[in-house]
Write a structure and sequence with these properties.
heterodimer, A: mainly alpha, three-stranded antiparallel β-sheet, 7 helices, B: mainly alpha, Cytochrome C Oxidase, Chain A, Cytochrome Bc1 Complex, Chain D, domain 2, two-stranded antiparallel sheet, 4 strands, 62% helix, 2% strand, globular
Chain lengths: 205, 728
């Protein structure tokens, strides 16, 4: 079919000298418009519960979480996996790991414990007093699970297991250093790793 | 035609006024844009509280949308309507009241926003007294416009006028219903709606502000100025009719696509999405009609900067109205939401469509309004290239930034842990692109300044006295059909012509299209109880926390921090349990945010201790190296205004928030002081350097931040809320 020329369709009216053709709608425009409408109806039908295959955002989320738990373990299992004392022991003898621990400490922990571990928002890590224990396992647990009530974040969401063991090792190396500015002791006096001194406690906070 | 010829004159003085206002506010608005772009790369540029990012960002958006684009609309509407309707504007006094009223509103915005006076709803930040001014001035404009239509000497109304009608009617409806609020003082109010419903109303408004302030009026301008400049007939009258009505009816549904995967019920966001997709062709109808109007005039485009501006404008319009539907598709939106992709999208529209169309229009108008040749054609050409390259640079940079950050947020490593768990890592990656964006924005601004210079120099060459040519047109003779119109006349396209002769009826049908479409979504949002399953452990904010929330709003924290965790594993791993509708029932207004320049705060409560927050507000970079957040040391010294707390609590209680005995005279203040003392004591206990914070603003803000998202943890209702909130 041969379309008539534009000029044949020129409307006889002028608005402030503006004229209009009465050209037909471009075919591709009409087709695409109809396609989007059909798609819209089909999409909506598909997400009506019981009608289509769409399950909704919450069901999809639950499925996503279940699949991840299946593949990588639950968040709790992942936390437990990060609490690995032998990794800390290994890191203590590995300069590369200690360096990783230091870097991690200086980006993540420094804001609250100071670069030298002397403490400000969080407690002093260099003295003999510990609030949540000084064994490798206790330190790992404190870092991994945090102490939300006291403002220590749960770091398992942010740090990877090798970073956690490295930073725990680095914290152990800070013990006994004497920072220029150190926070007053908090917690229980520990005479050795995992050994509290009986009856000698600083005011716990 | 033997009708008698009337003689009259057009009012071009008012058009000249609007033209200068457009240029002035355009330069100001874009300058503020460049400043906030630089603040994102150099946080130290937030050197005073008044000019910090959180307060300047709304100033930028308001200045560009309502001051620059608004005055551009009025310039074009006042010029074209008189000529299309063959009559002078109805009342010179109303025209003047409209002009000066609008400029007064802009000045009021420019003063109050830096002062932190805000309703904290995007593009509706201005507080209630200014909202009332806007409503009054808009009514003045509407009366002036519709009376001009009534006095026309042209029987049928042209497509540009249709678009003006739709804009004027719909903007009034949107403005009034989104801004309904309970005043709690001259410069403070709380939204009438809470949480999910407030979010719904806001984005019904927000999206349609884009539609009926930045799209339909500019389409009207395009339909007048483009065929004028090209001296070619419009491509298709039929397309005009079809795309006008489908656009007006479908646009209004699209708002909820701004809230995909939020606590908004999913049926609403699905409706928003499918209507956005269907809106693609109605939007493109305007672009097709614009570009095909240039058939036979493309040779002129090469030499005429005005047509060049128009071509880029329509192209940008078509790009962003393709991108809009694409972004509304849930899976795309999941990636783009909260990132700079959205910022890129709006700038393609605002710089490309609104900016270029306005520039072309002003260059076309200048010689006609100032009755002399344009000062420099060459400078206009230079402006075009500055604007084009500026926009390309801006868009390239910020699209890349958006996609990159979106991908980093969702990346998992091989052990199933977040690849970039530290939020700041994803921010630092954007810095080179932010520099590039600032450069692109600066180039666009330079172009604007060149235009301002060019127009002022043209004005300087104006004649000593403007000629006011006498126009002649035959008077409109009333036909009997006009007095008692058949409201169904014109329902078919061939009959549309009848409607065009009946503007009142045309207006009524436009309003019906917009209102009916709105009600389809609004009524279920407000009436269906299961949309928002209540959570028993969610309680109102304490008076001190409410005061902290007021500070959070005043400083514009919501401009960079969302409070809405979406149900994706990569979000819940990073921020905590996803947000539930029932958590926001006391949030007047909602503060979900739309861009995560910083991390989400929905589960901020209890993440860090009080002292962490104090140190962080005093100097974010001491706590988070490389943070780009402004520092707020003044919050540690400014006294908290306990005197207004009672009034604020009372206003919230009047909105239905169960404050119980707190509304008794002084009870709220007492409670606030007691809680402040507790918080301050805890801070002082952790760091003795901080003393005397119990009457400082920081204490209220910390109390608020520590409250965020904790109610749901109190009772183990997560599972219960989940099962009832699920499904479509």
């Amino acid at each position: 079919m041969s379309a008539p020329r534009d000029e044949d369709r020129l409307l006889d009216h002028k608005y402030d000298d503006i004229q209009e053709y009465d050209n037909p709608l471009p075919t591709w425009w009409t087709v695409l418009f109809v396609v989007t409408i059909i798609w819209a109806v089909a999409y909506y039908m598909n997400v009506i519960p019981g009608v289509g295959t769409g399950k909704g955002k919450i069901a999809n989320y639950d499925a996503e979480m279940a699949a991840a738990a299946e593949k990588f373990g639950t968040p709790e299992q992942q936390q437990e996996a990060a609490i690995d004392e032998s990794a800390v022991t290994a890191a203590l003898g590995d300069p590369a790991k200690l360096e990783l621990g230091k870097t991690t400490f200086n980006t993540t922990c420094m804001a609250c414990h100071n670069a030298d571990g002397g403490g400000n928002i969080g407690p002093n890590l260099t003295d003999d007093y510990w609030i949540h224990g000084n064994s490798k396992k206790d330190i790992l647990t404190t870092i991994t699970k945090g102490v939300p009530d006291k403002g220590m974040p749960t770091w398992s969401a942010t740090l990877k297991p090798d970073q956690i063991s490295a930073v725990a090792a680095y914290v152990i190396t800070l013990h006994g250093t004497k920072p220029a500015v150190a926070k007053e002791p908090q917690g229980i006096l520990m005479t050795a790793e995992g050994v509290p001194a009986a009856a000698d406690t600083a005011a716990a906070k | 035609m033997n009708a008698q010829l009337d003689s009259f004159k057009y009012d071009d003085a008012i058009v000249r006024k609007f033209l200068f206002a457009t240029v002035l506010w355009g330069v100001v608005g874009m300058l503020v844009g460049v400043i906030i772009a630089l603040q994102l790369v150099m946080p130290n540029l937030n050197f005073t509280p008044w000019l910090a990012f959180g307060r300047l960002r709304p100033l930028h958006t308001n200045a560009v949308i309502f001051a620059f684009a608004g005055n551009a609309i009025f310039t074009g509407v006042y010029y074209s309507s008189q000529r299309l309707l063959k009559t002078r504007m109805f009342s010179d006094a109303l025209s003047a009241a409209h002009f000066w009223g609008w400029q007064l509103i802009i000045v009021a915005a420019a003063v109050t926003l830096p002062l932190g006076i805000t309703q904290s709803k995007e593009y509706a930040e201005l507080e209630w007294p200014i909202d009332i001014m806007i409503a009054v001035v808009w009514v003045i404009f509407a009366v002036n416009f519709f009376m001009t239509v009534a006095r026309r000497r042209e029987r049928h109304i042209y497509v540009a006028i249709w678009f003006y009608i739709a804009s004027i009617v719909t903007v009034a409806i949107l403005h009034i219903f989104n801004n309904l609020s309970m005043p709690a003082g001259l410069f403070k109010s709380y939204s009438l709606y809470a949480g999910v419903q407030d979010a719904f109303m806001q984005w019904w408004y927000g999206h349609n502000a884009v539609a009926f302030f930045l799209t339909t009026p500019f389409l009207g301008l395009m339909y007048y100025f483009m065929p004028k400049a090209a001296n070619r007939p419009v491509f298709s009258y039929r397309l005009s009719i079809l795309h006008f009505w489908t656009l007006v009816f479908m646009y209004i549904w699209a708002g909820p696509h701004h809230l995909h995967y939020t606590a908004l019920p999913e049926w609403a966001s699905t409706l928003g999405m499918i209507f956005s997709v269907m809106l693609w062709m109605p939007s493109w109808g305007g672009g097709v009609n614009g570009l095909l109007t240039l058939r036979g005039a493309w040779n002129k485009v090469a030499e005429d900067p005005i047509l060049k501006f128009f071509v880029v404008a329509v192209t940008a319009y078509m790009m962003s109205t393709f991108e809009g539907p694409m972004l509304s598709v849930k899976s795309v939106n999941a990636l783009a939401h909260y990132t700079d992709w959205i910022i890129a999208h709006v700038h393609t529209g605002a710089l490309g469509w609104n900016g270029f169309l306005t520039a072309g229009m002003l260059y076309w108008l200048a010689p006609r309004l100032f009755q002399t040749k344009l000062f420099s054609q060459k400078l206009a050409e230079v402006h075009f290239w500055f604007a084009t390259f500026g926009m390309i640079l801006y868009a390239t940079a910020i699209y890349s930034a958006g996609v990159q950050q979106g991908l980093m947020w969702r990346a998992f490593d091989e052990t199933g842990r977040l690849q970039y768990p530290d939020f700041i890592e994803t921010t630092m990656k954007l810095m080179p692109m932010y520099w590039m964006r600032a450069l692109g924005g600066t180039m666009f601004l330079v172009g604007m300044i060149l235009m301002a210079y060019n127009l002022v120099m043209t004005w300087a060459k104006r004649p000593a006295k403007y000629e006011e040519p006498v126009v002649q047109a035959p008077a409109l003779v009333k036909t009997p059909g006009e007095t008692v119109p058949n409201i169904f006349a014109g329902l078919t396209i061939p009959g549309h012509r009848k409607w065009e002769a009946l503007p009142l009826l045309f207006t009524v049908w436009t309003a019906v299209a917009v209102i009916v479409a709105s009600l389809f979504e609004i009524i279920p949002t407000f009436l269906i109880q299961t949309n928002i399953p209540t959570i028993a452990s969610v309680k109102p904010y304490t008076p001190l926390e409410l005061a902290g929330r007021d500070i959070y709003q005043r400083e514009g924290c919501f401009n960079c921090h969302s409070q809405m965790v979406r149900p994706f594993r990569y979000e819940t791993e990073r921020f905590g349990e996803y947000s539930k509708p029932g958590e926001f029932v006391y949030d007047h207004p909602f503060l979900w945010g739309s861009r995560r320049t910083g991390p989400d705060l929905a589960r901020e409560g209890g993440k860090y201790n009080n002292l962490w927050h104090v140190n962080h507000m005093a100097q974010p970079r001491k706590v988070t190296p490389n943070s780009i957040m402004p520092a707020y040391p003044q919050l540690l010294t400014q006294k908290l205004d306990f005197a207004t707390i009672q009034k604020h609590v009372d206003a919230m209680a009047m909105l239905g928030v169960p404050y119980g005995d707190m509304v008794k005279e002084g009870a709220a203040v007492e409670a606030a002081k007691a809680q402040a003392a507790e918080v301050a004591a805890d801070i002082a206990a952790t760091d003795p350097n901080y003393t005397g914070l119990e009457d400082k603003e920081i204490t209220a803000l910390v109390a608020y931040l520590q409250r965020l998202g904790v109610d749901i943890k109190k009772a183990n209702e997560v599972a219960a809320a989940r099962t009832t909130a699920g499904g479509q």
